[in-house]
Specification:
The chain contains eight helices and nine strands. With 227 residues, the protein is α/β, with parallel strands linked by helices. It has a five-stranded parallel beta sheet. It has a two-stranded antiparallel sheet with strand order 3-4. A two-stranded antiparallel ribbon has the order 8-9. The longest helix has 19 residues. The structure holds 2-(1,2-oxazol-5-yl)phenol (97T). 2-(1,2-oxazol-5-yl)phenol binds next to strand 5.
Length: 227
């Protein structure tokens, strides 16, 4: 999978070189490229934003700069993901769908967002006809300083679903069972007793039927508490 992210803060993406995602890049399963939006400006101040038409607080990112950055990246069959608190909430189902894409482009807006004509243009123009799909996505009901951290959340959730990225694909099968409405059950490891608290007896029993039953009940209890 090819992933492009466009941002005015490329350093935000340093963690993408670590852990599973870092290894996936080393093994050629993911090709992640970060682009500095300011490199597409042509004025002396490297301006990326201006005041909003109609007035109001904050600044809006210039469509022309985004056009310069996006045009060469949006080849056919791409998903353009615009991060915005007003977008559709990112879910595990969306992560599964995006993990099947061959090319993701993350547009990380700052300030009050990107001029809406950028979304309109890539949804309607020859780009749409060539197979560019535009998505406005939010990672949750809170306000961030920009789309960078939201993109990292999405990239991590999506890339771990690509075949070969996870060392142990059994954990994916288990998760898909859990996402049928149950949250995970509580887990324990050594020692058998820690600070006076013992591991539940059933987990030491070796009775796999009883263990599965207990875990399902625990997961249901957790789900009740969470909602
Ligand atoms: O709050 C934001 C600002 C810019 C881009 C994205 C966000 C956001 O994404 N999910 C929640 C908030």
């Amino acid at each position: 999978m090819k992933i492009d992210a466009i941002t005015i803060f490329p350093e935000y993406f340093a963690p993408a070189q670590l852990s599973l995602l870092g290894k996936a890049q080393g093994r050629g399963l993911v090709e992640l490229q970060i682009h500095d939006l300011r490199s597409f400006t042509s004025d002396n101040h490297n301006t990326v934003d201006d005041t909003p038409y109609g007035g109001g607080a904050g600044m809006v990112m210039l469509p022309e700069i985004w056009g310069q950055a996006l045009d060469p990246l949006l080849i056919s069959d791409s998903d353009l993901i615009i991060l915005t608190p007003a977008g559709s909430r990112f879910t595990q189902k969306m992560a599964e769908d995006f993990s099947k894409s061959s090319h993701l482009v993350f547009a990380c807006g700052r300030y009050e967002g990107i001029d809406d004509r950028v979304r309109q243009y890539y949804s309607q123009s020859q780009f749409a006809k060539a197979g560019v799909r535009v998505h406005e996505v939010s990672v949750g009901d809170y306000v961030l300083g920009g789309g960078e951290v939201a993109s990292l959340v999405m990239i991590e959730a999506i890339t771990r679903l690509i075949p070969g990225v996870l060392g142990n694909p059994e954990s994916l099968t288990e998760e898909s069972h859990n996402s049928d409405g149950y949250l995970e059950y509580p887990n324990f490891t050594k020692p058998q007793e820690w600070r006076g608290i013992s591991v539940p007896e059933v987990l030491l029993s070796g009775n796999h039927g009883e263990i599965a039953k207990w875990r399902k009940l625990q997961a249901q209890e957790r789900a009740k508490k969470a909602f």
